[in-house]
C-alpha cells in the first residue's frame, strides 16, 4: 500500500496569516491517464470530512479560494492564503491511484 | 441535496456480528461506486472497503479482509457493510462515502458508531 506522510502534524496560526501543509506519498500519484490522484480533506470538530481539493490542485465546488493545492509526483502542498477561524480542524491528504485508498495521518490546525 | 444516512451501529461483543446500512438520497445511486471509511476514537481516517457501481467488484483493506463484506442494493439505493468476527480494534465511527470518478470521495455521511467491547 502507498504510505502517505504529512508535515507538520499540528499547526497554530494567527487569523489572517498564511498556512502550509506538506503531503508526501511513497509512490508517484501521477497515473498513465494523466491525472494525479491526490485529494485534500478538512474534518472540522464534530463533523464528517469534507472535500477541499481534488486531483492535487482543483478546488471543489463551494471551497473558498483561499485554499489552494499544488505539487506533483510524490510531493504535494495545501496552502491557506489567510487562515480564518472557521478553518480549524484536521486536514488530511489521501491517495486513490490504487484501489486501496490511503490517508495521511492528518494535520491539526488551530487558531492562536 | 445529495445525502447519505448510515444506520446499524451500536455496542457489540468481540467475536459477534453487525450489519451497517447506508441510505442514499438525491443522486443516481446505481451510477456511482461507494466506500466505507472508518475513524477510531481520536485517530485518523482509514479506508475500509469499496464497491463498484454495479456491485461486480469489491475491495477491502487487509485489516478487515475475510471478516467484512461490502454489498449494495441499487433497487433500494442502499449500501451495506456486514461485519463478522468483530474485534476491539474495529471500534470506530463508520462513514458511508460516495465515490466520484472526478472528485474521489466527495460526499460523506454523518457516520455511525460501532463499539466492540465485552
Low-confidence stretches of chain A: none
The first-to-last residue Cα distance of chain B is 39 Å
Mean pLDDT of chain A: 96
Topology pattern of chain B, helix = H, strand = E:
EEEEEEEEEEE
**Quaternary structure type:** heterodimer
- Rg estimate of chain B, integer Å: 13 Å
* Structure classification of chain B: mainly beta
Largest interface, by Cβ-Cβ below 8 angstroms: which chains and how many residues each?
Answer: A-B, 23 and 18 residues
Number of strands of chain A: 11
Residue share in β-strands of chain A: over 45%
Shape of chain B: globular
Explained architecture:
The complex is a heterodimer of chains A (112) and B (118). Chain A is 0% helix and 48% strand. Chain A is built from no helices and eleven strands. In chain A, the strands form two sheets. In chain A, strands 2, 4, 5, 6, 9, 10 and 11 form a seven-stranded mixed β-sheet that branches. The termini of chain A are far apart. With 118 residues, chain B is mainly β. Chain B is 0% helix and 54% strand. In chain B, the strands form two sheets. In chain B, strands 2, 4, 5, 6, 9, 10 and 11 form a seven-stranded mixed β-sheet that branches. Chain B has a four-stranded antiparallel β-sheet with strand order 1-3-8-7, with no helix packed on it. Chains A and B meet through strand 4, strand 5, strand 9 and strand 10 of A and strand 5 and strand 10 of B.
